[in-house]
Design goal:
Its cofactor is Mg(2+). It catalyses: dTDP-beta-L-rhamnose + NADP(+) = dTDP-4-dehydro-beta-L-rhamnose + NADPH + H(+). Keywords: NADP, Oxidoreductase. The chain is globular, with a radius of gyration of 20 Å. The chain has about 300 residues and is α/β, with parallel strands linked by helices. The strands form 4 sheets. A 6-stranded parallel sheet has the order 2-1-3-4-5-10, sandwiched between helices. Strands 11-8-13 form a 3-stranded mixed sheet. The protein has a two-stranded parallel ribbon with strand order 6-9.
Length: about 300
């Protein structure tokens, strides 16, 4: 299976590259930007094109969101012309006002924000005009590298003594970029083998949590990892933000359909954070050794 991945520096693109490198059944072609033409698709002949998400569209400028949506529209045109499947990942922020219960896949986002509505228009067009698509709605992604990685930025702030500000009244399901990459490749392998299960799917981590609690847990685990290595670091604090004073806003994605159809299980974000902190500590140790400031093993 050959996949064309757009937006090379995105944390999800890097996760897809790592996952593909561990497999013998998946070949990746990675493009720097979001532009792809019919002639490129004809030359590359991928089984699918994957577009990573705008991780935080609510905090982006209208011009940035419109540029992304316009680029996706052009990708749809190119994919249609060559009969190539399209996978578009989108942020759970499209469910701007949240729901009291987990959000099923059939619930199409209906945000008030004009920028988010522009993204929904593109999704509506894909569903109406091109059958061979996967629209994959994701919880907030976290990773150790790449744009929109979140976790790496949080760790850097903590170890340099800076405060991390996080909303206490917004509840969601943090999602490992590595787990999304593994799921997407598995889903597309099944599609290539004839599953023909196109449509919208939700992928997120287990255990709904506020951004404040997630950041606090990362800080606690980071402190434990550093102390276990004999390091004493004055970590920055977590500061709570409150945007919804009347009640907590819940964006919890129901991921039952991706389990029922593709057998994809949600991964516990606590375990994924722990695994990534292990990797971060090993990289930190190696960098110190390479710089001649650490102790040789």
């Amino acid at each position: 299976m050959k996949l064309l991945i757009l937006d090379a520096g995105h944390c999800l693109s890097l996760a897809l590259a790592r996952e593909a490198s561990r497999r013998t059944d998946t070949e990746l072609v990675i493009e720097q930007g979001l532009a792809v033409s019919p002639s490129q698709l004809q030359a590359i002949a991928p089984d699918a094109v994957i577009i990573p998400p705008l991780a935080h569209p609510l905090s982006m400028t209208p011009a940035e969101v419109k540029a992304h949506a316009d680029a996706v529209d052009r990708c749809v045109d190119a994919c249609q012309s060559q009969g190539v499947a399209l996978v578009w990942c989108v942020s759970d922020q499209l469910y701007e006002e949240g729901f009291d219960i987990p959000i099923d896949e059939h619930v199409v986002p209906a945000p008030r924000d004009e920028c988010l509505r522009r993204l929904v228009q593109t999704g509506d067009r894909i569903r109406a005009e091109y059958h061979r698509h996967l629209i994959v709605r994701l919880g907030p992604l976290f990773a150790l590298e790449g744009s929109h990685a979140w976790l790496s930025e949080m760790i850097d702030s903590f170890v340099t003594g800076q405060a991390v500000r996080a909303a206490e009244d917004v509840v969601f399901c943090p999602t490992s970029a590595d787990s999304v990459a593994m799921a997407l490749i598995g889903m597309l392998q099944q599609q290539v083998c004839g599953a023909d299960a196109w449509g919208a799917y939700h992928l997120a981590g287990t255990e709904p949590v506020s951004a404040f609690t997630f950041a606090s847990m990362v800080r606690t685990q980071l402190a434990t990892h550093l102390e276990g290595r004999g390091e004493k670091v004055a970590l920055g604090e977590v500061q709570a933000l409150n945007h919804h004073h009347d009640a907590k806003l819940r964006r919890v994605l129901n991921c039952r359909r991706v389990l029922d159809i593709f057998g994809v299980h949600q991964k516990p974000w606590r375990l994924e954070v722990g695994r990534m902190l292990d990797a971060w500590c090993l990289t930190r140790d190696q960098q110190r050794e390479d710089a001649g400031t650490g102790e040789s093993v």
